[in-house]
Amino acid sequence: MSREILSLKQAAEHVHLDVNELRHYAQRGEIEASKRGDDWFFEHRALDEWAQRELLAADRKGLDEQHRAMMD
After folding, report:
1. Of 5, 32, 57, 66, which sits 20 to 30 A from 40 (CA to CA)?
2. Contact 71, 31 (CB under 8 A)
3. How far is the C-alpha of 58 from the C-alpha of 72, rounded, in Å?
4. Is residue 41 within 8 Å of residue 5, measured between CB atoms?
5. Is the pLDDT assigned to residue 56 strictly greater than 60?
6. pLDDT digit string, tens, across residues 9-53
7. Does position 72 have pLDDT exceeding 80, yes or no?
8. 43, burial (CB in 10 Å: exposed 0-12, middle 13-18, buried 19+)
9. Strands 5-7, 39-43: parallel, antiparallel or unpaired by DSSP?
10. Distance (Å, rounded) from C-alpha 8 to C-alpha 25?
11. Are 9 and 22 a contacting pair, CB within 8 Å?
12. First to last CA, the chain
């Protein structure tokens, strides 16, 4: 199975993020990416896995905030 590689623009569109925001995640090492020259590239599978983890973390954070608000 071949690995589909996405450019920064393609990857940002895929996960519905601003290009600069996705670049910052990559620069901080929060998402698996490779840099060639000034260009960033993302493996489709790794990008999907990262997005799923982020979505789950956001859901948990939202639930925690709702719980705290209810308990106040």
Report:
1. 57
2. no
3. 21
4. yes
5. yes
6. 999 999 999 999 999 999 999 999 999 999 999 999 999 999 888
7. no
8. middle
9. antiparallel
10. 11
11. no
12. 52
Name residue, tokens 């840099």: 35
Nearest to 49 by CA among 24, 35, 32, 34: 32
The label of the residue with tokens 């901080």 reads 28
Asked if residue 1 has pLDDT above 50, the reply is no
Q: In one letter, which amino acid is 53?
A: R
Q: Does 36 or 59 have the greater pLDDT score? A: 36
Helix intervals (H) in the chain: 8-15, 19-27, 44-71
Q: What is the CA radius of gyration of the chain?
A: 15
pLDDT for position 3: 81
Q: Which two tokens stand for residue 65?
A: 């905030």
| Cβ proximity of 4 and 44 under 8 Å | yes
